[in-house]
Amino acid sequence: MNTPPSASPLAIIADDEDSGRLLLEASVAEIGLSSLAFDNGADALTAALGHDVKIVLLDVDMPGMDGYAVCRRLREQPRFALTPIVMVTNHEDSDAIAQAFAAGATDFISKPVNWALLPRRLEYILRNAAAAEHIERLAYFDTLTGLPNRQRCMKIAERMCVDSQSALQGVAVICVDLNGLKRINDTFGHSMGDAVLQSFAARVVATAQQFNVEPERLLVARFGGDEFMIVVRDVAARELATQIAKACCEAFKQPITHDALEFYAAPSVGLAVFPDDGADAATIFKYADTAMYQARASGNGGVATYTPAMSSRLRTWLELEARLRRAVHNELLTLVFQPKFRLSDNKLVGVEALLRWCDADYGDIPPTRFVEIAEDSGLILDMSSWMVRAVCRQLRKWLDRGICIPVAINCSGKELLHGDPARTIETEAAAANVPTALIEVELTESLLIKDSVTVQNTLKRLRQLGCRIALDDFGTGYSSLAYITRFPPDRIKIDKAFVRDIDRSNGDAAVANAVLSLAQSLNLIVTAEGVERHGQLHWLRARGCHEVQGFLLSRPLSAANLEAQFFATSKPMEDDQLTDRTDRIGL
Q1: How far is the CA of 281 from the CAs of 95, 165, 220, 510, 553, in angstroms?
Q2: pLDDT at position 449
Q3: Separation CA 49–CA 17 (nearest Å)
Q4: Dihedral angle sign, alpha carbons of residues 445, 446, 452, 457
Q5: Which of 86, 100, 187, 317 is the most exposed place for a label (fewest CB within 10 A)?
Q6: CA 571, 572, 577 angle in degrees (round to 5)?
Q7: What's the confidence (pLDDT) of residue 535?
């Protein structure tokens, strides 16, 4: 037996008769195939599992493992689902034929064989098999990445679960969601997005394969969009799956480079294991997806392993999402306003509009919770539009009463990258007949450092409308001083994380001093957030901070309470009034 050239299409032959084996080898050689020939079924099976095989020819009657058994074992492997397997036998009765097809045979050839005709018969079988494979690929494989699709993945996973029980193994499903693909499509077009996705897919496959799991125990599939599934069968399935999941997170810390551009994907990964977490493959896939959502909801991605409590949280999440959708569409949200004060004279110089949601059954929902739900569901765009509309209506009411005060609104990442905040502000301000110059837009620092065309164009349009731009949470992201000098905001807000111990911590004081120095050189206004103690206030005033906001001065107020407390008179608050206010609100 000679080893065939690695590039040649390969036939596996098993026949315990020397003459029959030689004639079968000659027949496959005539149609351009190399062959590996054996006189027993066990060796033929081993060889088939270790090679890329084009066709298998099996004698039925062989010592040890017969042709039927070899055929059944091959069909158990996903990659042999469409490989032509031809049974060659002396038996011509209907029972033998039925047995052959029941075992998974593609065709049945009776002895004595017409050797002159056999090569043509094999060509016909192979031709029907290039057609069947094409149909199979269209139905069961993702056309972009070449990976198995959802339907095929589920089918193979079900078989793996059955096989694992007899082998005392487990089957782990790892759900890998690669965030950021939609932004690539929106910014650079679908051709670029497809190319980057193919690179993403290749990295997922390479990461899974580095663990050297046998092909029949490992599957990587694309479920759609930027969601991939890794299925692995092993005695220690949970431990192995955890290692693979963590490796996926590590792998995507490095960017994908395409056309001299670098693209990052922040994976959220969830995993569940059969039979520990569920009694069937469909349940395990559902729970792996649930765990992935839990990982995404944590805010920093990473890996989450399914626990029963996650299902309860997911049901609550989905219910809150539905209730939030109704609240937005039925205008059941409310606004409160956080006052901002100028330190030079303690005057109220503006307010920040904040969303609040009180559900009839769940009560007050924390903003961090419902904003997260809105971001994940895509409802954030509708919610942001509602907020702009409500702010403009309130500004109109104040203007009608002779009150002119700027209002700051927060712009989320999804709104900036996928919505059109400038157009929304322009439309709603025109509808309410209020000047857009009274609206300030607060952006997080991490958004500005993306420095994308979308961000730049949006900022230019907001400036053209007369809106002021504030850089929120400054110092907590990845500072890009080059960007600030190229397109400076009107205001920098020192994040409350640095204000908390600004008068007690040398590190926090150093950050704040650096921000104040930067702002002075660029002629920017500095607002300090989260001022709750007099020590913080005195430190900021002594170092030339322009404005402050926080519970020391005022909690967020309804429009009515804001009017009653600050618009009844035009006199500025003195420091002793700040103390009185602090006492009244219990700080």
Answers
A1: 35, 13, 15, 55, 57
A2: 53
A3: 23
A4: negative
A5: 187
A6: 110
A7: 94
The 3-class SS string of 114-130 reads: CCCCHHHHHHHHHHHHH
Q: What phi-psi label fits residue 433: left (phi over 0), alpha (psi between -120 and 50 degrees) or beta?
A: left
pLDDT confidence of residue 315: 81
Beta-ladder partners of 444: 472
Q: The pTM is what? A: 0.58
User: Which residue, chain included where needed, has tokens 């494979």?
Assistant: 133
The answer to whether the CB of 479 falls within 8 A of the CB of 460 is no
Q: 157 and 173 in contact (C-beta within 8 Å)?
A: yes
Query: Residue 60's CB: how many other CB atoms inside 10 A?
Result: 24
| Ranges assigned E (strand) in 2-161 | 10-14, 34-38, 53-59, 85-89, 107-110
pLDDT in tens, 552-578: 999 999 999 999 999 875 444 444 444
Quick one: tokens of 541? 């005033």
Cβ neighbours of 431 (radius 10 Å) = 12
Tokens of 180: 């950021």
- Regions of the chain where pLDDT drops below 70: 1-8, 92-93, 131-137, 186, 299-301, 445-452, 475-487, 569-587
CB neighbour list of residue 133: distance below 8 Å, 6 or more residues apart: 82
Tell me what pLDDT residue 235 has: 94
User: Would you say 153 and 171 are in contact if contact means Cβ atoms under 8 Å apart?
Assistant: no
Q: What is the pLDDT of residue 476?
A: 56
Q: Measured between alpha carbons, how far is 95 from 420 in angstroms, rounded to an integer?
A: 71
C-beta separation of 57 from 34 below 8 A: no
Question: Hey, how many other C-beta atoms are within 10 angstroms of the C-beta on 114?
Answer: 10
CA distance 540 to 537: 5
Radius of gyration of the chain, Cα coordinates, nearest whole angstrom: 34
In angstroms, the CA 431 to CA 302 distance is: 44
Average pLDDT, the chain: 86
DSSP string, 525-582: EEEE----SHHHHHHHHHTT--EE-STTT---B-HHHHIIIIIS--PPPPHHHHHHHH
- Surface-to-core class of residue 198, CB atoms within 10 Å of its CB (0-12 exposed, 13-18 middle, 19+ buried): middle
Cis-peptide into 275, omega within 30 deg:
yes
Contact 22, 16 (CB under 8 A): no
The pair of three-digit structure tokens given for residue 198, joined into one six-digit string: 């193919």
Give the whole-angstrom CA distance, residue 316 versus residue 209. 37
Measured over the CA atoms of residue 417, residue 419, residue 423 and residue 427, the dihedral's sign is: negative
The HSE-up count of residue 183 (CA atoms within 13 Å, CB side) is 18
Q: Which one-letter amino acid corresponds to residue 539?
A: W
Quote the CA–CA distance of 385 and 546 in Å, as a whole number: 30
For residue 232 the two structure tokens come to 């692995």
